[in-house]
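User: quick one, sequence for these tokens?
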């Protein structure tokens, strides 16, 4: 029997991984949420879902055996510094404004970040950097994002990921990437009426955004626009509007420790994002 530990915000006891509908802050799922067990079932459950049911369904997905095993094993073993906390240990849904003009896209949850807290870019060093920058740009209510239920709120912005389960070494396989793609495709389809800008944190996110937009019928140029920090690409939507892709180096410790990505560089990306989104 897994040990139950108190959630750092609410004090409620949870096993790791956290069961669906057990009261984890912002858990979108219930015990009756349908569970995808294959790539075909992901496609079926994503098609036609609204944002709430999409988040719920992806948060209980079990379509990729390797990733399910790994995320749950990490949740049970934990990092020593978090040994007293329960781990979410499930796929991490998109989070933020349902009518977002700015969408931030990352690769996947971190093993001891999103996979622990249940909220994307929350509880790790990359998230600390990202949310501090979002707060400076007026796109997040608080400068830090530590736990689900901590009062953080995104403003006109949504944060999401190409792959929803934490992968070993941050490297999902092509099959896992493709199995997970319908969740993001449906999410961007639902956000399309408001979405003006997609900020892609790293080349993986950039390429994922281009593949997803192409799947949704956007006019993605060939050859594909290339990723780079501060790269920009205007992509025409089927209805004639445009969405702008903005590239940013990922705020990984490797990039921020070495100075490859500075606060000023990230701030400049969000200044551009606000401009394209018509915010402020
Ligand atoms: S990576 Fe995506 S498709 Fe695979 S189990 Fe996780 S949520 Fe499901």
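Assistant:
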């Amino acid at each position: 029997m897994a040990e139950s530990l108190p959630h750092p915000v609410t004090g409620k006891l949870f096993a790791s991984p956290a069961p669906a509908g057990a009261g984890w802050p912002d858990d979108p799922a219930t015990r009756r949420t349908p569970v995808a067990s294959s790539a075909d079932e992901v496609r079926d459950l994503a098609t036609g879902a609204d944002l709430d049911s999409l988040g719920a369904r992806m948060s209980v997905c079990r379509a990729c055996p390797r990733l399910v095993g790994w995320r749950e094993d990490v949740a049970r073993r934990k990092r020593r510094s978090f040994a007293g906390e329960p781990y979410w240990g499930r796929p991490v849904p998109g989070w933020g404004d349902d009518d977002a003009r700015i969408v931030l896209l990352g690769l996947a949850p971190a093993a001891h970040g999103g996979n622990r807290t249940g909220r994307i870019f929350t509880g790790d060093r990359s998230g600390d950097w990202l949310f501090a920058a979002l707060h400076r740009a007026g796109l997040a209510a608080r400068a830090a994002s530590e736990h689900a239920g901590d009062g953080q709120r995104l403003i006109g912005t949504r944060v999401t990921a190409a792959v929803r389960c934490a992968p070993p070494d941050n490297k999902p396989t092509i099959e896992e990437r493709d199995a997970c793609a319908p969740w993001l495709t449906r999410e961007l389809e639902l956000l399309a009426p408001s979405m003006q800008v997609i900020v892609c944190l790293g080349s993986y996110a950039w390429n994922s955004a281009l593949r997803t937009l192409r799947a949704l019928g956007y006019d993605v140029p060939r050859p594909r626009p290339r990723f780079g920090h501060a790269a920009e690409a205007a992509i025409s939507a089927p209805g004639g509007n445009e969405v702008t892709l903005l590239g940013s180096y990922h705020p990984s410790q490797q990039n921020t420790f070495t100075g490859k990505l500075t606060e000023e560089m990230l701030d400049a990306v969000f200044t551009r994002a606000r401009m394209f989104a018509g915010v402020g």
